[in-house]
């Protein structure tokens, strides 16, 4: 099932091409205006506030001073439990590398439509996948977004255009992978598990890691469209950077918050597979992307997950038959992704679908 707007006969090849054709007065076609509940964006927009989310100092998390490290692990655990989102600072990734990957992604979306189409994917596990929208196979709607996904690990998949993209993606992927590994050790310890628990149980050495680039072109009627509907991320950790334009909203204690990351911080969130392994102690948090009528927004999520063929289950050392029985079914990451892809986006965390009732 091709995840592209060309699926709809009346639609142009990408949201970028559509946005370029529309003038600012053009009425938006309802196929871009899907919301899980009618007018969710309109109804809830007034409740959006600027959120202050926890900050994790990566230098302290990896400190050789045991007290500093222990204190930061505690803060990390609190951030996972209360927000599911946090900003990583003092991470050592040079600003030039952030700029490099943002610029390369912008250059990709600027390629002629026919050249981008060479990378059109067929399924969620395609290592290189360019398209628009989300689950075109099951949702009768399109979202105001074009995307590119590239798998970086356990195998690196080079993409031939634009020139220099692959080199930058490789370097960026390697740096973020090191950071993800340390954060997973911290999360493991914060749950009371041994530091290498996730690493060993989920075979993270051969874990899936991919980058995505999302382009949200300016939209003439942003209040009627949605960039990405509310969802949680699969996998363990997502790291997000953006081109300085806001649009991410996170649901916290029943309210939507606008998130504006600190410059050069990496915005991190935990995914469904941390929720499963922690047996629900840390929840994967709903988030969505809204669009605006002025600036093109680029966001770059990097997903770090288990090995595709490893079964993911609640961690046995955390369980107790009476006080903490397993709440989630055991599935391989691959099975989870395939099941999720067959399901309609319904505004719930997909982890809820494998909840043992
Ligand atoms: O664009 C954003 O800020 C959010 C992107 C996102 O949630 C995703 O790609 O999963
Ligand atoms: Fe997401």
UniProtKB/TrEMBL annotation:
<protein>
    <submittedName>
        <fullName>Oxoglutarate/iron-dependent dioxygenase</fullName>
    </submittedName>
</protein>
<dbReference type="InterPro" id="IPR026992">
    <property type="entry name" value="DIOX_N"/>
</dbReference>
<keyword id="KW-0408">Iron</keyword>
<dbReference type="InterPro" id="IPR044861">
    <property type="entry name" value="IPNS-like_FE2OG_OXY"/>
</dbReference>
<keyword id="KW-0560">Oxidoreductase</keyword>
<dbReference type="GO" id="GO:0051213">
    <property type="term" value="F:dioxygenase activity"/>
</dbReference>
<dbReference type="Pfam" id="PF14226">
    <property type="entry name" value="DIOX_N"/>
</dbReference>
<dbReference type="InterPro" id="IPR050295">
    <property type="entry name" value="Plant_2OG-oxidoreductases"/>
</dbReference>
<dbReference type="InterPro" id="IPR005123">
    <property type="entry name" value="Oxoglu/Fe-dep_dioxygenase_dom"/>
</dbReference>
<dbReference type="Pfam" id="PF03171">
    <property type="entry name" value="2OG-FeII_Oxy"/>
</dbReference>
<dbReference type="InterPro" id="IPR027443">
    <property type="entry name" value="IPNS-like_sf"/>
</dbReference>
<keyword id="KW-0223">Dioxygenase</keyword>
<dbReference type="GO" id="GO:0046872">
    <property type="term" value="F:metal ion binding"/>
</dbReference>
<comment type="similarity">
    <text>Belongs to the iron/ascorbate-dependent oxidoreductase family.</text>
</comment>
<feature type="domain" description="Fe2OG dioxygenase">
    <location>
        <begin position="207"/>
        <end position="306"/>
    </location>
</feature>
<keyword id="KW-0479">Metal-binding</keyword>
